[in-house]
Sequence to fold (187 residues):
Amino acid sequence: MPDNEGKGRLKAIIIAAIVLIMLTSAAVFFYNFNGRSLDFSDRQILVIPTGSMDGESQPYSISTIPEDSIIMVHTLSDGQKTGLTVGDVITFHQDDIHKVHRIIEIDNGTIITKGDANQSPDAAIGLSDVDGKVVGVAPNVGKAVSFVRDLSSGSPLLIIIGIALIIIMIYSIIEVIGIIRNRGREE
Fold:
């Protein structure tokens, strides 16, 4: 019996270590994704539906944003909007359309933006049109979200893959329950 207790403790320590590593990794991811900040107030997470920001790599903190990326946006107060600079990627509304583009020019409160992949700049906007500043980009997480979105849109292949994954998960859960029951009978 002592040998089984030792194996059980070792297993518990390994599981605890794995959970700790996963939680630490998640904390580091969100810290970096949030613009190296633990302050999540005034933040919003968006998915980029187009490739307008998926152009040449730019020499700024937000280099480029591939289509279907997830972005972290810091909602700006009026006072914070005056601190925007050329190269910042902002969210704004123009003609009832919300956009995420890079600032290419600022002149007396008038801002000119352009998508990195677009040929021409957008029409000028004012500071009041700015909603927030992009502080983080997660392209791979966005691809996973897009996969789930596509799955829910009815693509037959994706539905089949989703059903197969659910069946595998159910089978795995049943296997684990069986192992736990058998272990309980042995003790």
